[in-house]
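User: Please go through the entry that follows and flag anything odd:
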Amino acid sequence: MKWFGTCTDIDDQKRNQQSLEEQVRQRTAALVEANAHLTEEMRERERAQREMNLHTENLVQELTERSRKGALLARMGELLQSGTNLTEAFSIITGFAPKLFTGWRGAIILLNSSRNLLEVAGVWEDCQLSSMFFDPNSCWALRTGRRYSVQAGDHSAPCAHATGVIGSYVCMPVLAHGEALGFIHFQIPEGKLELSESEISLVGTFSEQIGLSIANIRLREALRGQSIRDPLTGLFNRRYLEETLDREMHRVVRAKQPLGVLMLDLDHFKRFNDTFGHDAGDAVLQEAGSLFSKKIRAEDIACRYGGEEFVLILPNADLAMMSARAEELRAEAKKLNVVRNGRLLGKITISVGVAAFPAHGSTPQELLAAADAALYQAKSAGRDRVIVAKGDGTEASESTAAGR
């Protein structure tokens, strides 16, 4: 038997196989590493995308909130410009403030007309205040003319008006045309230490708008006062009398209530001018006007009708009450002692005509004419007396004293 065999050297093949396996391992490891990097990169991108989405969402929310507050400010400004008095203005301000500054407490505190006292004009969200009146130097914002902030627990330089305030607060001066009108006091929610830039901007815009609105309303009120007030006596003028009497007569017709008119005249007024000069006559008119304004009820209206004539409108006053009021004024006029340049000007007496709605007239013109006719009768009868208009069978009533 014979055997045949072959011998083959496979070292190279084994080496090649090992090299191939090593390459596969390396490539597999590289792929694993690349996949790990890719996975991490995808995670980073997803994280960055989430952060970007959150930032975008926050930005959209912030812009939406700014837009909402901007619309509120515009609406508040529109209402303030349409307001006719400060009472309305303060109601608008305290109504819009909680919507603009959610969770903040606050108050608007203004200088009085004499600028020697600060008065609380309005509050919102139960703002903590120790008083309703403060010294003008009690607020650093008002003294420095710019925003002043105090963080909770900081006692280095607190505002005197903020005594008892535990948390943080901000005060913003209210200015208009370079003049300080007062300030707005904000009490910040607990845990909030700093204001954002948008909040600082909102506080500034809010106070600026309020300052301009208050200044405009005060100017309109001053102009309105000048148009309806007699500059010498401070009483309402004839224009206001005619407007008010017409309105009051319509009101009492609906309410079925009485209404009275007193027309008063200073007796022998020309004598004061001729004897002592027109300045003395003006002083007499001022004293008489002061008397009439002091002796009327809150609902009554005192007017200077012209020259030395005055008219009092007495809502809800019957004829007996009007006659009694006229007699009281006649008696009080005699007590006036007007001194001019050290000289006593002499006794003052008045004559009064009384007319009632609807007995003596159904229109303002008729009522004033009836009162004027009664006044003329009082003057003709000797002055220093009260006469009730004729028309309802009422007899004239007059005082016992007579003037010359």
